[in-house]
Design goal:
Blueprint lengths: L16 H19 L3 E2 L5 E3 H8 L4 H6 L1 E4 L5 E4 L4 H10 L8 E10 L11 E10 L4 H17 L6 E7 L3 H16 L7 H9 L10 H8 L10 H17 L4 E2 L10 E10 L7 E8 L2 H4 L7 E7 H10 L10 E5 L5 H13 L4 E3 L5 H10 L4 E5 L5 E5 L5 E4 L1 H7 L3
Parallel strand pairs: 1-5, 7-8, 12-13, 12-14
Antiparallel strand pairs: 2-4, 3-4, 5-6, 6-11, 7-9, 9-10, 10-11, 14-15, 15-16
Helix pairs in contact: 1-5, 1-11, 5-9
The structure holds adenosine-5'-triphosphate (ATP) and magnesium ion (MG).
Length: 412
């Protein structure tokens, strides 16, 4: 029986243009986050299941339906991380960093959710994200958002992406709003989806986030939080908006944003686009004040976001931003005896930071074909005496050069 090996459903190989865009997203985000003072952390890809079950809240879709959990050989329940924030907060506590705040963290890497795969939605996907851990000030919220906005701009995908912001209020606002939502949804409980009936008991605010068509009609007439905000919560939200304006970040209010995870309060935001069909959220985040406590640390007010790298990459493709690999210089030995001087030359080029390729075999014609396939910018012909001809493959110009002159001419 023959069986073709295929990637697991919902996973993909990133090769060629896909890999280059993916890499570019990570590098651009890492560099931009660095400009804002964020430092990269690398936390494990799997954690004790409790880190996510406690951290994300058991009414979240992620915990209730999407986690990749398994028992390892020692009998411990392990989960492949579905998101980055819980692990970062766990790491803050495990590493005794809760007294040295704020910590400004950047991360990038694979995440795992058991979802129905479709364009822009995978079972192994990748996120970039930032967190400011230990800052209660609204300036932190605005800075985090401004950093995200700058990343979208640098990726060339900000056109057609809109920042939508909301406030979830503080505990007192939330309790009052919750009562109003329970009243609204209870009156039409029989028309709610099965999931939303459960949310009505555990976390009615999550109904606002429902993707069910029937629910959406009932959500449309639900009260917004504005009338229930305490003066402090309202002032906080005002301040975030003032700072966003000062940072030059355009935004609009969307009172329906609650975010998929249970741990948010105050600011919630999403960068959304209509260029990716149903998977329109490219970046989402907000303020969370209880998560570090869930991990056994002290109360640590925090704010952050995560963005799906696949969706950013798709947007880059849509706008035609496709990074090209560097054009190499082709080193071409003329005859077997020319290999020795050619190898000495190619190492000089690489040590000078110049991308250079040498074919492993083949006559001059074959090697030139290969150089053209690789879109080489220049060829260096080397003879057995070590004499070098430099040919610019765009202009066709050719001249004799020394090793040092070749390196200098090619930008080393
Ligand atoms: P959605 O509503 O699309 O399911 P979410 O609320 O579950 O999103 P978050 O948990 O906030 O998403 O994750 C942040 C970002 O990660 C999303 O905005 C999206 O860009 C990306 N993302 C989430 N799940 C997936 C997935 N299964 N495949 C690809 N990207 C994803
Ligand atoms: Mg989701």
């Amino acid at each position: 029986m023959s069986s073709k090996m295929q990637p697991v459903r919902g996973t993909r190989d990133l090769i060629g243009a896909d890999a280059r865009r993916h890499h570019h997203v990570a590098e651009t985000a890492r560099h931009t986050a660095g400009l804002y003072g964020f430092e990269e952390w690398f936390t494990p890809i799997f954690e004790d299941t409790g880190v996510f079950a406690r951290g994300l809240g058991d009414t979240s879709d992620v915990v209730s339906k999407e986690m990749y959990s398994f028992e390892d050989r020692g009998g411990d329940s392990i989960t492949l991380r579905p998101e980055g924030t819980a692990g970062v907060c766990r790491a803050l506590v495990s590493n005794g960093l809760t007294q040295t705040l704020p910590q400004k963290v950047f991360y990038a890497g694979p995440m795992f959710r058991y979802e129905r795969p479709q364009k822009g939605r995978y079972r192994q996907f990748h996120q970039i994200g930032i967190e400011v851990l230990g800052a209660a000030e609204p300036l932190a919220d605005a800075e985090v958002i401004a950093c995200g906005w700058q990343i979208l701009n640098r990726l060339g995908v900000a056109d057609g992406v809109v920042l939508e912001i909301n406030t979830l209020g503080d505990d007192a606002s939330r309790d009052a709003y919750r009562a109003a939502l329970v009243e609204h949804f209870s009156a039409q409980a029989d028309k709610l989806s099965h999931d939303s009936k459960l949310r009505l008991e555990k976390n009615p605010q999550r109904i606002l986030d429902s993707k069910d068509e029937g629910d959406r009609a009932i959500v449309a007439t639900a009260p917004t939080i504005d009338a229930y905000l305490t003066p402090e919560a309202a002032a906080f939200f005002e301040a975030v908006q003032k700072y966003l304006t000062q940072f030059g970040v355009p935004f609009r209010r969307n009172p329906r944003i609650v975010r998929g995870l249970d741990y948010y309060s105050h600011t919630a935001f999403e960068f959304v686009t209509d260029r990716l069909g149903a998977q329109g959220t490219v970046m989402g985040g907000g303020r969370y004040n209880g998560l570090v406590e869930e991990m056994g640390g002290p109360a640590t007010p925090s704010v952050g976001w995560a963005a799906g790298m696949e969706r950013l990459s798709l947007l880059m493709e849509v706008v035609g931003n496709n990074p090209q690999p560097p054009r190499p210089v082709a080193v071409i030995p003329q005859g077997d005896a020319a290999e020795t001087p050619a190898l000495a030359l190619i190492q000089k080029l690489r040590q000078a930071g110049i991308t250079a390729e040498i074919g492993y075999r083949g006559n001059l014609k074959r090697r030139m074909e290969r150089a053209n396939r690789q879109n080489a910018r220049a060829a260096l012909f080397v003879d057995e005496a070590g004499a070098i001809q430099l040919k610019d493959l765009d202009s066709g110009e050719q001249r004799a050069v020394s090793e040092d002159a070749a390196v200098a001419a090619l930008g080393g």
